């Protein structure tokens, strides 16, 4: 399968971004829409992956000026194609363009070992978000390791 990952603005691409995030986070993970879609969407840098042949949206992610990477989602039928890797690489590129020194993610607690493989370290205490235990993990931008990734709300 071939796909294209592009940087998009919320104002223009919101229906496509929402489509993917609703499929993954609202319907699969059962996260309430009121939590999934927040004011940060209007200020974030978003990326959108679309299937080249059908032009259907298949993945998304965002990064905030604070360095927070979140809302990484890939529709179930495309997860084996490693779309998430390209989404994250695009987000890392944006982080470099923003001259960020550090990025961070609030990952599911069971994924901390997974993110350690990419040079992320735990920071702070475990907390609950949308009924799920989470852990903040940080990584200096110059120490990012590219490998396989995990969906992250």
Question: What tags apply to this protein structure?
Answer:
single chain, 153 residues, alpha+beta, Aminopeptidase, four-stranded antiparallel beta sheet, 4 helices, 7 strands, 33% strand, disordered C terminus
Tally of individual helices:
4
User: How much helix is in the residues?
Assistant: 25-40%
Work out the number of β strands. Answer: 7
Mean pLDDT: 90
Q: What is the general shape?
A: globular
Task: Measure the end-to-end span.
Answer: 25 Å
DSSP strand content: 25-35%
Word description of this protein:
The chain is of the alpha+beta class and 153 residues long. It has helices at residues 10-28, 33-36, 83-97, 112-116, and strands at residues 3-8, 45-51, 57-63, 69-74, 102-108, 121-129, 132-140. A hairpin with a 2-residue loop joins strand 6 and strand 7 (132-140). The chain has a single domain (3-143), classed as Aminopeptidase (3-Layer(aba) Sandwich). A 4-stranded antiparallel sheet has the order 1-2-3-4, sandwiched between helices. The two termini are 25 Å apart. It contains 4 helices and 7 strands. Residues 147-153 have low confidence and may be disordered. This is GNAT family N-acetyltransferase. Residues 3-153 form the N-acetyltransferase domain. Keywords: Transferase.
